[in-house]
Specification:
Elements: H1 26-30, H2 35-39, H3 51-58, E1 63-64, E2 66-71, E3 84-89, E4 92-96, E5 101-107, H4 111-116, E6 121-126, H5 132-137, H6 146-149, E7 155-157, E8 164-166, E9 171-183, E10 186-197, E11 206-209, E12 212-215
Antiparallel strand pairs: 1-11, 2-3, 2-6, 4-5, 5-10, 6-9, 7-8, 9-10, 11-12
């Protein structure tokens, strides 16, 4: 993102959703003095809960799995289109019906976090139980380039966002960022849904429970 001027701006959130102040600049967030404590699984927080205890408790909460995607903006007038970026997420939820809002939690300082600070349009594909390989691929640490990750995955480009919409997903949503909120070591991104479709009516959802991808039932 170096050398590119940000086009991101924060708009007011619907009265149905109230959040605290917007996210501070990336440099400020990366200087967070609590980052080292969060990285230590045995660290104990005020109140007595450790990272391990918190993680174990939350692993008992079953969650659906989605692929969040966005396309980098074109590099200059007449230049090549930006690369596609994808990220597996389980912290995704519906927030409001009127207006239609969703929320996704993204690790601060990640490539997707930096991209969505500049690119307000993004998409979500709700993964089916047969798409476990896609979820695993985009959740890898030290992974290869996103260009190669998308190479053999069938998708179409969203008309609104330009982001990849995964073929065979149970549902796809195209969103525009309404607000970004700092929340510990993550950023909560609230998006207004601008388009929605149901590419596949077959199969059940891909779930995540106790640290593993699972099928419903």
């Amino acid at each position: 993102m170096c050398g590119r001027r940000s086009r991101y701006y924060v708009r007011g959130v619907s009265q149905a959703v109230k959040f605290p102040a917007a996210v501070p600049p990336p440099a400020e967030r990366r200087a967070d003095p609590t980052a080292e404590r969060r990285a230590d699984p045995t660290a104990v927080h005020p109140g007595g809960v450790s990272n391990d205890e918190f993680r174990a408790a939350m692993s008992r909460l079953a969650a659906g799995v989605v692929l969040v995607t966005a396309q980098e903006e074109q590099l200059g007038e007449g230049g090549p289109a930006g690369e596609d970026v994808g990220m597996t997420a389980t912290a995704f939820m519906s927030v409001s019906l009127d207006p239609p809002l969703v929320l996704v939690s993204i690790r601060e300082g990640s490539r997707m976090d930096d991209l969505l600070a500049e690119q307000p349009r993004w998409a979500v594909s709700v993964l089916a139980e047969s798409q476990r390989h896609i979820a695993g691929r985009f959740a890898m640490k030290g992974r290869i380039s996103d260009r190669l990750l998308f190479e053999d995955i069938p998708y179409v480009r969203g008309e609104f966002s330009g982001a990849p919409l995964v073929g065979g997903a149970l549902a796809t949503l195209e969103c525009e960022t309404e607000s970004r909120v700092a929340a510990g070591d993550h950023t909560l991104v609230v998006g207004r849904v601008m388009a929605a479709s149901l590419p596949s009516a077959e199969g059940g959802p891909l779930m995540y429970f106790r640290g593993r991808y699972r099928q419903l039932g």
